[in-house]
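ok trying this again, last paste got cut off
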Amino acid sequence: MSRYFRLFIISAGAILVILLGVIGYQRWQANTQPKQTSEQTAQLQQLADVLASEYQKIIFLTDDGTQYVGDLALRKTAALTAPASATMSNVISSPTSWFGMTDTTLVHYTFTGSTTVGSVTHPSTADGLALDTTGQWLAWVTGSSGKQQIILYNVNDHTETVLFGADGGGSFSNLTWAPDSSALAFTTATNTVHFITPQGVEPYTPIGFTDLEINYLHWLADDQLAGVITPNEQSSSSFAPYLGVFDRSGTMIEQHRVFEKIGIPKVIWAPDAKTFALYNPWKNYFVVYNRYDQIQQLLRLTLPGKITALGWVNGNVAPATTFGTTTNSTTTNINSIAPDTTPGLFTVTADDWEQYNDTVRNVLNQFKIDFSSYRFSTTNQGIVITAELQPEANQPELIFIQVLTQTFALLPDIPTISLTWRYNTNHIITVEQLSRVQVETLAQQFTNHSIVELFVITKKFPLGKKTPKPANPNHTYLADTVYSNFGEYIPLPALGFIKALIDEDTIHYSSNYTLRYPNSWSIKNRGEGNIVFYTADTEFVSESSWTGFSVTVRRYPVPDITLDQWLFVNRSDRTVENVTIPLAAPLQAKHIVAEQTFADEYIMMANHTVYVLNIERPGGLTTIDQEQFTRLVSSFIDGSAYVRSY
């Protein structure tokens, strides 16, 4: 063996030893580094989905100290990584951060984690820290009951001062900042609201509420505050908490009684103050109302235990920095994860399905239902119900409308309901994917009440008893959907309003002419050229009830011109006068003064369309005929049902 060959063998062996050492070191290093489990990856993806969406969100705590973010529109929740402090602050829209305090340690939270700010001299001794909208001022209460002070902390330079109650005399709570951070509002003895600026100036007169207590005070706008109002021990009023909105003079301008069964819940407000949310512990969901007490959104939770709402943030809050776990030299960044762009579909667990089915069956149990025909199912859009009334059941249309409104009232998280109703052997009423908004509009249009106001839900009536009218307890608001102001049973207008499909025998009444204009007007030729009124999907007419008359509605699409311009071109030879019937914008209307006794005419314009209503009778129109026609025109204008009876 040559010397060069021996050198080659020795060198190759050395290289092999080095390579084996490197490989072994890499394996050892890989085994000692923390690995990201599949569960952690799923949690990270879940958080990414929630934070990347551009919808409104709430921050809340569970009783184990975990912070969660919940997307109200997509109905998703995700846990945040940083554990909560003993006392937490409200959450604001910009910057998307909040604070917590445990003992004397102040912690700053963001969606990416938490940072210890430092120690404070006067630690918080009450629930809640109040962070202003600029992110500069943090306020809290310190001291024992009756000897408290309000501390003001400057987040920028980390200084703290006693802002109010320098001598430690009083009990303070419900701290909330003005939207422009100009002043802090708070309560003393929970029945008087005070105001103070960061400079220690009291800019407004305190507001006192006799025999009332205020909880969860929130400053909505420059001249509006809100709080959960309850009678105190000195009050003679019964316990009936409500959400009150009042101005700086103490005048109550709004009352919302949407949570009577819950007690005194914490109410959190959206940054724009147009909606508010509260947590329902009995049904384990957050429900969002607008200021007309209409349910807007619902976030159902699967988390056990106590839930505490912190506050509300708005818009896209995905952090701009990398947030992830390093594993084997790779980084999972939530900004690189594509957001879930799938529309919010209705998802149902097995427990949900049982609850919805039981609720629907209980609603139907109030009526004469043939349960052998009952079918219930769910889709990714809502619930589907099929049922048949027994032959002796009366007013099937009213029952149909009540089932829809009552089910939405009891199941506020249901997005749509499809309902098929069979009665009298072969008659059918059906709606497909009727939304909550459509039913809320129906209730407001016909009854001037929201869905939840149509039913009184108590322990005695867990399904909700129909709300009686104060003037006549024997009548209910729900009946307004099917009865005219004259007491006539006219269910077709309401059914037409929700675009229910009805078999033709049901549409025609033998002695009544019924008209409804919910969304659009038009004309339609039928039979031997007779023109009848109809809406987009459903006809309401009894042709025989106008025998001897020629009643027509003609529709003319027009460009962007005024009604007067249209009349100048098309009715220049006629005398025109204003109508005496109140008009709802953008509708305009004129009456054509008749030069004959056998005809009358009205012209209306809305949405770039002109409608000409005309009535003629060869024998001449009587005064009663013209009054009937005026009522007919009025029903077009105000959307109410018009009935002409023999």
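PB: full thing came through this time. Residues 316-343, 504-546, 639-646 have pLDDT under 50 and may be disordered.
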